[in-house]
Amino acid sequence: MSAPLYPTGAIGDEAGFIAVFFIGLLFGFFLERAGFGSSRKLTSVFYFKDWAVLRVMFTAIVVAMLGLLYFSGMGWMDNAAVTQKETYLGAQIVGGLLLGVGFIVGGYCPGTSAVALASGKWDALSYIGGLLFGTLLFGASYDLVQPLYLWGAMGVKSLPEVMGVQAGVVAAGVVLMALLAFTATELFGNRSSAAPRVWDLKLTYQKAGAGALMVLSFGLLVGYGMAAHVQPAQAQVAAPAPATVSKPAGAAIPAGGTASPSPLPAPAAPGGVRKFKKGSSCS
Which residue, of 142, 147, 169, 233, is most buried by count of CB atoms within 10 Å of its CB? Predict the structure, then answer.
C-alpha cells in the first residue's frame, strides 16, 4: 500500500471524508495552539515583532518537503497521484499581491480566518464574508479577467524542473534557508535575553531539530546525486539460434524437396502466467 491513500484507492469515499474531517480538526487545533487565531500575532511578523509565523510556516514547509521526498524515494509515495496545481504567472502574481495586502490589512489568511471564527473572534466573520464576495465577483467577471488569468501558463512545473537540478539540491537549499532564518530570528528576535539560546552549550529541542534537518538534507543531496549517475544494469542475453524439428521417421517427403522444419510454438509473452504441474503436497 502506498500513499496518498485516497487517490490510490487504499481507502474509500466514506473513510476519505472521515479522515479529512478529523485532519481538519487537528489542523485548526494546532493553528490555534500556535497562536494563529489572533490577527495581532499574525501581523506582528510584518512589523518584526514576533517571528512565530515565519518559524511555524518554515517548519511545516521543510517537514512536508522532506517527508514527500523520502517517502517517494523509498516507494511509499506515488507522486503521480499527488495533485499539483498548474502554474499561471499572471493569476498567481496578482493573487499573491492581493492576498498579501489582505493579510496585512485584515490580519488573517483564509485558513486562519476560519480558525479565528471557530475561536469566537467576530472580526474573522467579516474577513470570510469578503473572501466569499471576492470569489463570487471573480466568477461573475471571469470573461473580463480571463486574459490575465491565463497569462504565463506553464503547466505543472516544479522548482527542480525549472532550475534544471536534482530535487535533493533544491531540498538542501530550502533547509539551509530555514536554518539561517531560525538562527537569525533567534539572535535578533530576542534582544532582551542576556545570552542568546542559540549559543548555549546545552542541548535544546531547537538544536536537535536543526541537526536532524541538516542530516536529512545532506542525505537527500547525496542520495539524489548518486541516483543521477547510476545506470540500470541490462542483462545481455544472446539470441538463441532458430531450432528445427525434423519430422518423425516414415513421414513422407515431397519429391525433389527436403523436409521442412515444423514451426515451433510462439514463446509466452514476458510477465505471462506460467502453469506448472500439480505436485503432491506435504500438508
Answer: 169
What the block records as the C-alpha cell of 20 is 479529512
Q: What is the per-residue DSSP string for 198-243?
A: GG-SS--HHHHHHHHHHHHHHHHHHHHHHHHHPPPP----PPPPPP
Question: What are the phi and psi torsion angles at 154 (to 5°)?
Answer: -125, 0
CB 51 within 8 A of CB 189: yes
Q: Is the pTM of this model over 0.70?
A: no
- DSSP secondary structure of 72-140: HHTT-B-GGGS--PPEEHHHHHHHHHHHHHHHHHHS--HHHHHHHHHTT-THHHHHHHHHHHHHHHHHH
Cell of 58: 518554515
Q: Provide the CB-side half-sphere exposure for 160 (13 A, CA).
A: 15
- Domain range summary for the chain, segments of one domain joined by +: 85-151
CA dihedral 113, 117, 122, 124 (to 10 degrees): 10
pLDDT at 14 over 60: yes
Give yes or no for a cis peptide into 4 (omega within 30° of 0).
Answer: yes
How many residues comprise the chain?
Answer: 283
> Terminal CA-to-CA distance of the chain, rounded, Å?
31
pLDDT for 191-248, tens place per residue?
444 444 444 446 576 777 777 777 777 666 656 655 554 444 444 444 455 555 454 5
